[in-house]
Amino acid sequence: MTRVIRMVMLLCLLAPAASGWATEELRILSGGHIIPPAVVEAFEKKHHLRIRIESFDSHETLAAYLETDPQGDLALLRGHHVSYLRERNRLAPVNHALLPNLKNLWPQALNSPVDAGAAYSVPYLQGTLGLLYRRDLFGGRKPGWNSLFDRRAAVTPFAVTDQYRDAMGVALLYLGYSYNNPSPAALGRAAEALQGLAGHPAFMGFLSVESLGRFVREQFIYLAVTYNNVAARAIEDDPSLAFNVPEHGAVSWTYAFVINKKSRNLEAVHQWLNYLLEPEVAAEVSAWNRAASPNRAALAFIPDGIKSNTVIYPPNELLYKAQAPLSLGAEAEKQMTEYWSNINR
């Protein structure tokens, strides 16, 4: 699969080497800047290990890179890539005996649709996909997926995330399909719906995650398909904004750590994973990212303003009944990326 891979190297080696530190280094590949630097620094001091993080422009780019069978120890990516990479023999199994803190996770997180029993992944964050919008433009109404595609319902101007799996998924939901429908006919119709946005006078394009929240705050756009953690930060800056997860067509997302089958630092890998499962650490990760933690023991350490925020911590019935992105298989993935390359030119 041909994709342009653009990496930004993020070196977390800020402190000088301390006496007696081991030379061992963990290389972590991440589909976004979602590991708090303070968490990395505390782990390095506690375990005398170095952490090197390489961040990719998207989780899809990272998943494509992992298919090339690269070096490295761990990857932090969207949950639906777990089963896909496992099928391609790119992952090492998780050793539960080395993760006593695994007991802190919610049972639903341990038995996700993409990796039952957390055999090949360790959940890190979870959230929802929805619509960030200006309240005053909707008169008390909440926008739905039709607000993007139905020109009678559209609000000017609006934008959609440039993460192609979610853009295609939203189009599938609008057309009445499952977010995870892999059929060629469904994907073709979804691609047509997205292509149709190009001629919409209110459509401002497929924008990066970082841009969406900022552009809504600055009133460059008034409606955006984005993620609840992005929306939470935008709403903190501008309370006139709101976030809606459409009741018909709710979508969840997860981030999880996986172990590269080539890693030779398995003991250190599990030290890192077990450290992240400590309640205080998981709480810090949740607050820093404005995203829900799958760690139930962390709730006691999360600030009230974070855990009571329903944008960040939606009701469990919504989070766990929403459609979780699944692997669609090689053929559907190939077709989807081909469509996307023509749509997002």
What distinguishing features does this structure have?
alpha/beta, single chain, 14 helices, disordered N terminus, D-Maltodextrin-Binding Protein, domain 2, 20% strand, 2 domains, 345 residues, 11-stranded mixed sheet, globular
Give a short overview.
With 345 residues, this protein is of the alpha/beta class.
Topology:
Layout: E1 7-11, E2 25-30, H1 37-47, E3 50-56, H2 59-66, E4 74-78, H3 81-87, E5 91-92, H4 107-110, E6 111-112, E7 115-116, E8 122-134, H5 146-149, E9 158-161, H6 164-174, H7 184-196, E10 203-207, H8 209-217, E11 223-227, H9 228-237, E12 241-244, E13 251-260, H10 266-276, H11 279-289, H12 304-307, H13 316-321, H14 330-343
Summarize the structure in words.
With 345 residues, the protein is an alpha/beta fold. 36% of the residues lie in helices and 20% in strands. The chain is built from 14 helices and 13 strands. Strands 1, 2, 3, 4, 5, 8, 9, 10, 11, 12 and 13 form an eleven-stranded mixed beta sheet that branches. A hairpin with a 2-residue loop joins β6 and β7 (115-116). The radius of gyration is 20 Å and the shape is globular. The chain starts with 6 loop residues before the first strand and ends with a helix. The model is unreliable at 1-22 (pLDDT under 50).
